[in-house]
Amino acid sequence: MRPAVTVEHGTAPQRYKWVALSNTTLGVLMASLDGTIVIIALPAIFRGIGLDPLAPGNIGYLLWMILGYLLVSAVLVVTFGRLGDIFGRVPMYNLGFLVFSLASLALSVDPFTGAAGALWLIGLRVVQAVGGAMLTANSAAILTDAFPAEQRGMALGINQITALAGQFIGLLAGGLLAVVDWRAVFWINVPIGIAGTIWSYRSLREIGARRPARIDWVGNLTFTTGAAVLLISITFGIQPYGGHPTGWTNPWVLGGLATGIGLLAFFCLLETRIAEPMFRLALFRVRAFAAGNLAALLTAIARGGLQFMLIIWLQGIWLPLHGFDYEETPLWAGIYLLPLTAGFLLAGPLSGHLSDRFGTRALATGGLALVAASFLGLLALPVNFHYPEFAALLVLSGIGQGMFSAPNTSAIMSSVPVTQRGVASGMRSTFQNSGTSLSIGVFFSLMIAGLATSLPATLSAGLQAQGVPTNVAAGAAHLPPVSTLFAAFLGANPIGHLLEPTGVLAQLPAPQVSVLTGTRFFPQLISAPFHHGLVIVFTAAAIMATIAALASLLRGQGSTHRPLIAPTTPHRSRHGDMSGGRGQWGVGSQGAVGGDVREDLLDKGEDVRILDGVDLPLALPPAADQTR
C-alpha cells in the first residue's frame, strides 16, 4: 500500500501551477499598467473634463492623478499581504480583481467636469489602487505556493517582468487609447477585469498554509498613516513655496516628514512587542530577504527617476527638435521608449529560468551592474542624441533590470517560511512601490534644483532676443521651473504656456510669434540647463544602482527556506541515524517537498509529514543537527 503523505503547504498539480501563473500575471499586468497609463493620457483626460491642470491652483489635481494610485499601492500592500496569510491569499487576490474592475468601470463614466470631475477620478483611482494592492500583495505568494523551487524563479520572473514591463507598456497604451477617447484609458480594464475576476474565482484555490491570527489594527493604522504622511510630504516638497523653486522649506512639509518618520519608527518599535505583528521585522534577520529588499528599493527609485526623466527629455526637447508637434509628443515618447520594454521582456523570463539552475546572486548583481552602466552611458549622450545610441542604452538598461528583478524576487520569496509568504510578498511590493513614489520627489527635486541655477537667466535672455519686453521676460523666467517641466510632461508648448497669460503674443510680429511657439525655440533654449539637471539626476541614479548591486552581492548563496520533514515512525535514513523515540527528522529541498529524505522515507513505507514554515534553528531536535 502506498504510504500516506501530508503536505502542509501542498504541492500543486502540473496544470494548476500554469493556471496560477497565467491568472496572476494578468492581474499584476493590469495593476502595474494602470500606475502609468494615465501619465501619457493626462492631456486628453484634462481636456475631456474641461480643466487646465497648469493653471494656478490646479497643479495639485495633476500630481494626485499620478501619485494617488502609487501612494495607496505603496502603503497597503503589506496589510493585504498579511491579511492573505491569515484569511487566504487566493480570496484576497480574487477580491482585488473584483474591486479593481468595478473601480475601472466607475472611472470610465465620470459624470462631472472641472474640479469635481478631477476629484471623482482621483478618488476612484485610490479605490482602484486598493484592488491593485490586493493583487500585487498576494500574486507572488500564490506562485511561490504553486511552483516547486526548481521552477519558481522562472514563474516569478515571468510575473515580475510582466509587472515591470506593464509600467512602460502603460505609457504606450495611454497614448494610443487617448487618441480614441480619454475614457478608453479606463474602459480597457473593464472587460479584461471582469473576465479575470470570473476566471480567478473559478480556477484558483488555496493551497498555501494559512496562519490564523488576530489582525494587528494598531500596527496597520500606524504604518499606513506614517507611510502616507511621509510620501504625501515628499509629493508637496516638489511644489514651489514662498518664492523657492521647491517646497522643502515649507514648515508643513518639514513637519510632515518628521511626523511620518516618527510614526514609522514607533511602528517598528511597536511591532517588536505584538504577538501577531503586521510587519515581520524578524524576516530582516534573513540576509537574503534584507539585502534583496534593499536592492529592490534602490532599483525602484532609480528606475522611477529614469522613467520620468526620459519622458521629459523626449517630450520637451528631443521630439520637438525632430519636428514633432508638442501635442503628438506623449504618444511618440511611449513608442520611442519601447526598447526599454523589449529589454525587460527579453531578459526577465530567461533570467528567472537561469536563476533556477545557477542561482540568483550572480544574475541579479550582474543585472544591476548593467543598469549602472546604462546610466553612465546616458550621462555621456548629448541632449540632441542619435537615436540608435539612445535605444541601445535603453535595451541595456531593460536587460539589466530584467536580469535583476526575476532572480531577486525569487530569492526574497524563497528565503521565508511558507506561512510568511503573504506578508513577505507585501513587504517586497511596499519597497518597490515606495521606491517609485520616492523617485518622483527625489528626482524632480534634483532636476528642479539643476534648472533653477541656470534656466532663469537663459530663458530671460532668449525671450528678450525675440522681442519680448524685459519685464515680461523676467517674470516668465522666474516662474517655478516645475511649471515648465510639467508643461513639457503634458505635451504642452512651454513657451506658449508661459506667455499666453501675459497677452504679449498678440502684440509681437507674426514671424517672432512663430519662432517663439515653434518646436525648436524652447528645446534649443533649455538644452544646456536641462543637461545640467540630467547630469545630477543620472549620477544619483548610477550611485543608487551601484549600492543596490553591492547589496545584491552580499545577499549570500544559500537562501532557500527548507521545510522540516517528520516521519511518524523511527527509521534509519541514508543521511544518518536519526532515531529517537520522537520519530525521524530531516531537512528537505523545498522544490522536492522533502527531497532525498522524503523519498527515502516513502521507499520504506513511512507516513511523512512536511512541516513548512518552521524556524529551523529553533525547531530541529538536537539529534538532527547533523542533517543541516
In brief:
With 628 residues, the protein is an all-alpha fold. It contains 22 helices and 6 strands. The strands form 2 sheets. It has a 4-stranded mixed sheet, covered by helices on one side. A two-stranded antiparallel sheet has the order 3-4.
- Stretches with pLDDT under 50, minimum 5 residues: 1-12, 561-628
Number of strands: 6
The number of helical segments is 22
Q: How would you classify the helix and strand content by structural class?
A: mainly alpha
Largest sheet: 4 strands, mixed
Describe this structure in words.
It is a single chain. By secondary structure, the protein is mainly α. Helices cover 71% and strands 3% of the residues. The protein has 22 helices and 6 strands. A hairpin with a 2-residue loop joins strand 3 (572-573) and strand 4 (576-577). Helix 2 (59-87) runs antiparallel to helix 8, helix 4 (114-146) crosses helix 15 and helix 13 packs antiparallel against helix 14.
Defining traits:
four-stranded mixed sheet, two-stranded antiparallel sheet, 628 residues, disordered C terminus, 6 strands, 22 helices
Topology:
Layout: E1 5-7, H1 14-48, H2 59-87, H3 89-108, H4 114-146, H5 149-180, H6 184-187, H7 189-203, H8 217-237, H9 251-271, H10 287-321, H11 329-336, H12 338-358, H13 361-380, H14 387-414, H15 421-465, H16 470-477, H17 481-489, H18 494-499, H19 510-516, H20 521-553, E2 564-567, E3 572-573, E4 576-577, E5 586-587, H21 595-603, E6 608-611, H22 616-619
Parallel strand pairs: 1-6
Antiparallel strand pairs: 2-5, 2-6, 3-4
Helix pairs in contact: 1-2, 1-4, 1-5, 1-7, 2-3, 2-4, 2-8, 2-15, 3-4, 3-7, 4-5, 4-15, 5-11, 5-12, 5-14, 8-9, 8-15, 10-11, 10-14, 10-15, 10-17, 10-20, 12-14, 13-14, 13-20, 15-16, 15-20
